[in-house]
Amino acid sequence: MTVSPEDVTSKLPSSPAADSRSRVSQFMRQIQDEICAGLEKLDGQSNFIEDSWKRPEGGGGRSRVIRDGGVFEQGGVNFSEVWGQQLPPSILKQRPEAAGHGFYATGTSMVLHPRNPYVPTVHLNYRYFEAGPVWWFGGGADLTPYYPFAEDAKHFHQTYKDICDRHHREYYPVFKQWCDEYFYLKHRQETRGIGGLFFDYQDGQGPLYKGPNSESPAALYSQKLPEIAPRSWEDLFSFINDCGQGFLPAYGPIVEQRHNTEYGDRERNFQLYRRGRYVEFNLVYDRGTIFGLQTNGRTESILMSLPPLVRWEYGYEPPADTPEAELYSTFLQPQDWVNWPTS
Amino acid sequence: MTVSPEDVTSKLPSSPAADSRSRVSQFMRQIQDEICAGLEKLDGQSNFIEDSWKRPEGGGGRSRVIRDGGVFEQGGVNFSEVWGQQLPPSILKQRPEAAGHGFYATGTSMVLHPRNPYVPTVHLNYRYFEAGPVWWFGGGADLTPYYPFAEDAKHFHQTYKDICDRHHREYYPVFKQWCDEYFYLKHRQETRGIGGLFFDYQDGQGPLYKGPNSESPAALYSQKLPEIAPRSWEDLFSFINDCGQGFLPAYGPIVEQRHNTEYGDRERNFQLYRRGRYVEFNLVYDRGTIFGLQTNGRTESILMSLPPLVRWEYGYEPPADTPEAELYSTFLQPQDWVNWPTS
């Protein structure tokens, strides 16, 4: 069974463009290209290597990996475009209207693990779905520093807030908090990092946020969210475009600022230890990862997000009055970074 | 609410001893002591350090860690004894008779990560539950080599088969296959290692095996299992005792045989890479780990099973005609190790 855009569009809450699929997948390829080019320039030494792959059930992708670079110890940027007869149960639970319909999904996702512990790890993902009467966009970008620099957190958040504010004044506060809530390690009582933006199920209908995603203490779902006027498919696609374009301005200056900072075994060991939290989050909580592994996804592409080298240590606690302790006390809890006082 | 042994015993399928809880928890402490003493002797350099802890909701434990030893890069042996008002939903699904009753649980678990890549990683766990009208034993031990030595696999399996055979001729074939099935990484299409024994819900009533636990290719659950005559609480406790005593004879000789084998970067890198599978299994599939993390267990004790240093590498495949390739082709698939021909 295949679903043509024509079958779908007449029933959508707000119709997508007739060529919605090709426009979005073209965009997803384009941000993969632009981001890879920008990262190679930042790295200065290494280049991405590409694997193209086909999915037997329909679709495929291109996985790109950079390794042993001047900045990036390991990183991956994936593009994929897949289709099939039925969305998996985990998504249908959130989108029951899609049951019994074919689906189309395309997206780009990225995780970068820099070698220098002063350069934060970063994650980005944008995705788009169509299935029967529904379509939606999801995604975001979030930063995971190992050492605490408030000005980096502020710059990252301010860049995305500026983008959000050009589209809707409610986007930043809601998507920022959603990110704090989603990237939360309950068993550690820590956020994964300093957050950024995260959103899902954006179909142009209000409210922006449609229920809890984790058991984090961020009380987004108990808030009374403002009613949002419906937004068109074009409005949302334009927002996603700007978010995608925002990545290099959000992350690049932080890399340039930090990647020549000298470090020793102490900082490297702390980085390797903290990378363990990235593994714990991705394997225990991340819906995309777990879903992919359990449904015959391309394992190597899914697990490209895992760090190249990781350490676990029983009972580690950061010594008092150190940068490591400041990371825990301040940077692994949700903060209002755009209004953070910096000297 | 508390449940006294008296409330429970009259309704059990086969009554446990009146002092069942103290006898089992005493045994669990004793194997922790004996195994730690045996491992320190094998290690020759380092000793276990103990953390005692209390659980606010009832009970506690003692976590013991060995680090930077002559043999063991990192390892932990945990004892715990906990009680509470209600078992978690994941267990109640398997044991609905326990719903609405208080529970008691005690167990010992262990994971050892040797430094030398020729020495296998090993895991052991024994546990005992009482809840309302039901009680059961579970546990087992399994071996995860990095380099392929059929005689090691054969020795490990033969030791446990001999113990099983002293108790019931159906134990070894069923518990060996259950282990292959449980410690299976579906997304890698690999077993975690060469297996050993695994069993759960042993309450003295047949059949030995009560349904699928994973989606491994081991077709245990489609077999017609023999009907087993009921076994008493004492029968099962005696079996668990012998299994616990069997660990040092099963693992010790392998350590002694391998830990002086010379190795270089190639073997070390392969070991670190393969340790990633241990992390993937424990965080994605292991019911005990996931349950513990999601229900406010003691995180540091639960994650003591994770290796001290781990590597991930995109797209790794072992070169043809190498020991690494033999590990994949033969040792990461279920095999009849006790009947394996060795020279």
Keywords:
two-stranded antiparallel sheet, disordered N terminus, 10 helices, 10 strands, homodimer, 7-stranded antiparallel beta sheet
Descriptive account of the structure:
The structure is a homodimer of 343-residue chains. The N terminus of chain A is likely disordered. Chain A has ten helices and ten strands. In chain A, α4 packs antiparallel against α6. The relative contact order of chain A is 0.15. Helices cover 39% and strands 22% of the residues of chain A. A seven-stranded antiparallel β-sheet of chain A has the order 1-2-3-4-5-6-9. Chain A has a two-stranded antiparallel ribbon with strand order 7-8. Chain A starts with a helix and ends in a 12-residue tail after the last helix. In chain A, a hairpin with a 6-residue loop joins β4 and β5. At the A-B interface, β2, α7, α8, α9 and β10 of A face β2, α7, α8, α9 and β10 of B.
